[in-house]
Specification:
Elements lengths: L1 H27 L1 H11 L5 H21 L3 H20 L11 H15 L6 H7 L7
Helix pairs in contact: 1-2, 1-3, 1-5, 2-3, 3-4, 4-5
């Protein structure tokens, strides 16, 4: 049970950060503003990349918090962070302004939690509440 509580705390923390970053891309910067920023950073297909990042971070963060479709969500969030690492942050080194330590930690944490997110999840609750069909 302690392992499941620790996994839930991890999912909450990492999920909230992804949710906040996706929300920021949609509401604060707007998808056009995010695409413009991505273009300025040299991200290929900046409009498509902005949509992908915003949707994956917003929906993925929420789903990670809830514990729904965790392996798929973990992989998508890790791919999102791998793109950020390779396309934007890698040239800046591990530490310092624009470094890749943050996206690295978020990506590996999302991947680990996606496959080891514990049993305290909406998906597990829904699975346990299925009504048995009469024979």
């Amino acid at each position: 049970m302690l392992k499941d509580v620790a996994a839930l705390i991890g999912r909450l923390g990492v999920g909230v950060v992804f949710l906040a970053h996706g929300w920021q891309k949609v509401t604060e910067w707007g998808l056009d503003g995010t695409a413009t920023a991505f273009a300025g950073m040299g991200v290929p297909l900046p409009t498509l990349s902005a949509w992908f990042a915003a949707i994956v971070e917003l929906a993925g963060g929420a789903l990670l918090i809830l514990g729904v479709a965790m392996p798929v969500v973990g992989v998508l969030l890790a791919v999102d962070m791998l793109g950020a690492l390779i396309l934007v942050h890698l040239p800046n080194g591990l530490l310092g302004q624009g470094g890749y330590e943050f996206v690295l930690v978020l990506g590996v944490a999302a991947l680990a939690l996606g496959f080891n997110g514990g049993s305290l999840s909406v998906a597990r609750l829904a699975k346990g509440r299925k009504v048995e069909q009469p024979a």
